[in-house]
Design brief:
The protein has 256 residues and is an alpha/beta fold. The protein has one domain: Carbon-nitrogen hydrolase (Nitrilase/N-carbamoyl-D-aminoacid amidohydrolase, 4-Layer Sandwich), CATH 3.60.110. Helices cover 25% and strands 29% of the residues. The protein has 7 helices and 14 strands. The strands form 3 sheets. The protein has a 6-stranded mixed sheet with strand order 5-4-3-2-1-14. The two termini are 32 Å apart.
């Protein structure tokens, strides 16, 4: 599977500008890709005007994603704000060229930033298969909680989309590698760049990591860009056979 990481500077609360700019960035990528990964809240930035910024399901941003997927003959994913049945969610959305949609609602809400006062947390993982690869999507703060992300033999690729602040950039890099190593899985972490309306800076450093914790692809800090790399299931399965640490893993139980 060929994966494209798109590291954009998000225009604060400007959906039209963000989607137009991302369209330009994606159009400029020459490499064929099977999956395009965008940052957390790629269409608005992480605004505390969540309800005002939110959309109904399968609304404007979904339609934009579907157009990209059809035009690029690929799938596309990232998170944005969704309102549904009286609740507000920070929702990861995956769309492929056929219109197939997979969603995951952010489980761990960043209480230190007030996210828990606005949003409803998710209550289930959403592992799914695409192109022969089993994918487990998570959003930003979820990355800090290894029990929730524990590989139970059910996924090959962990995708984390984020607005991760520059002040904790080392944590971002360490946790992504740790999640890859402990779960014997590929990890794609896609972060945005720029400064939000509260003065918080995100430095990007989006990365694709192999199951041994080695960096396959990285995007530079504080620079927009998109890059593509390939992962193979054969490589992963061979490593798991030769070094089957999963056989000795604890059987964690999660209360939701």
């Amino acid at each position: 599977m060929r994966i494209t990481l798109v590291q954009s500077e998000i225009r604060w609360e400007d959906k039209t500008a963000n989607l137009s700019h991302l369209n330009e960035m994606i159009s400029a990528t020459e490499d064929h890709s099977d999956l395009i990964v965008l940052p957390e809240t790629f269409n608005t930035g992480f605004s505390m005007k969540g309800l005002e910024m939110a959309e109904e399901t399968r609304s404007d941003t979904f339609k934009w994603m579907l157009d990209i997927a059809k035009g690029r003959n690929a799938a596309i994913c990232g998170s944005y704000f969704i309102k549904e049945a009286g609740h507000l969610y920070n929702r990861f959305v995956f769309v492929d060229k056929t219109g197939r949609e997979i969603s995951y609602d952010k489980r761990h809400l960043f209480s230190m930033g007030g996210e828990d006062t606005l949003f409803t947390r998710g209550n289930k993982r959403s592992v799914f298969e695409y192109g022969g690869i089993r994918i487990n999507p998570v959003v930003c703060y979820d990355l800090r909680f290894p029990v929730w992300l524990r590989n139970r033999g059910d996924y090959d690729l962990l995708i984390c989309v984020a607005n991760w602040p520059e002040s904790r950039r080392e944590v971002w890099n360490y946790l992504l590698r740790a999640r890859a190593i402990e779960n014997q899985a590929f990890v794609a972490g896609v972060n945005c760049i720029g400064i939000d309306n509260s003065g918080n800076r995100c430095s990007g450093e989006s990365v694709l990591i192999d199951p041994k914790g080695r960096v396959i692809l990285t995007l530079p800090e504080n620079q927009e860009g998109a890059a593509t790399a390939e992962i193979t299931l054969n490589e992963l399965e061979d490593f798991r056979r030769k070094f089957p640490v999963w056989k000795d893993a604890d059987d964690f139980k999660i209360n939701i």
